[in-house]
Specification:
Elements lengths: L8 E7 L6 H4 L2 H8 L3 E7 L12 E2 L9 E2 L1 H12 L7 E11 L2 H8 L3 E6 L4 E2 L1 H6 L3 E4 L9 H12 L11 H4 L17 E2 L2 E2 L9 H19 L2 H4 L1
Parallel strand pairs: 1-2, 1-6, 4-7, 5-6, 5-8
Antiparallel strand pairs: 3-4, 9-10
Helix pairs in contact: 4-6
The protein binds adenine.
């Protein structure tokens, strides 16, 4: 009897809008990685844990001010339920524009975890006690404000899952891509050799692997200098 392979990672996502994840999770690499048993991704609706008659999960801020704030009780009850769905100790991430900025280095770091719990908020923000009480790492995907943490959670799941062993068809393809060596990726071409009078660089047709490797290195460096000089400063 063949045993099922142990999943490389379990990801739990806590959200008020689980339907938002349906499409991204059911296409391409994320779909294949789940089907191949590389990752298990589970969605839990925070609203299912609201105790009041109206299934209310937000309330007005103390002290006044615009907007609504996500309440503690549904968030904590949901978290405590989800935490028990696996024995693996989770790395807990709260999506918020106030967090540390997400980058490829963080994606690599998270891809080494066995279990992630991502908490996506809505409304104007979380009750501060959610922030402080859950021992979560706060992560932002960039200096702009989204309507909620869902899109940010999807970005993180995508960037992390594609790094899991076996998630990309070709084991090497995550190695060469943009940011993997701190540089942008070199230019790529496929057939035809000439398209609208623009020819593929001769070197790529030469068959000289050492020269091609050097050309790619030079191109990656040149392109990074031109388009993202900030990457070279670190
Ligand atoms: N929620 C709202 N804006 C966000 C951002 N930029 N990153 C992560 N979560 C968010």
């Amino acid at each position: 009897m063949r045993l099922k392979p142990k999943k490389a990672m379990r990801v739990d996502i806590l959200t008020l809008f689980p339907e938002m994840f349906e499409s991204p999770l059911s296409h391409s690499i994320l779909k294949r990685a789940q089907q191949a048993g590389i990752v298990e991704i589970a969605l839990t609706n925070i609203r299912d844990f609201a105790k009041n008659d109206y299934r209310k999960v937000d309330d007005k801020p103390y002290g006044g001010g615009p907007g609504m704030v996500m309440m503690c009780q549904p968030a904590f009850d949901c978290f405590e339920y989800v935490e028990k769905l696996s024995d693996e100790k989770p790395k807990v991430i709260l999506l918020t524009p106030q967090g540390q900025k997400f980058d490829q280095k963080k994606a690599v770091e998270l891809s080494k975890e066995k279990r992630l719990i991502l908490i996506a908020g809505r409304y104007e923000g979380f009750d501060e006690r959610i922030r402080t009480g859950l021992d979560a790492e706060q992560i932002s995907i960039g200096d702009y404000v989204l309507s909620g943490g869902e899109l940010a959670a999807m970005v993180i799941v995508d960037a992390v899952v594609r790094l899991l062993p076996g998630a990309l068809g070709d084991e090497d393809s995550a190695k060469d891509e943009t940011f993997s060596e701190g540089l942008l990726e070199y230019p790529q071409y496929t057939r035809p050799e000439v398209f609208r009078d623009i020819k593929v660089p001769d070197i790529l047709l030469s068959g000289d692997h050492a020269k091609i490797a050097q050309w790619r290195k030079d191109q990656a460096l040149e392109r990074t200098k031109k388009l993202r000089p900030d990457l070279l400063e670190n």
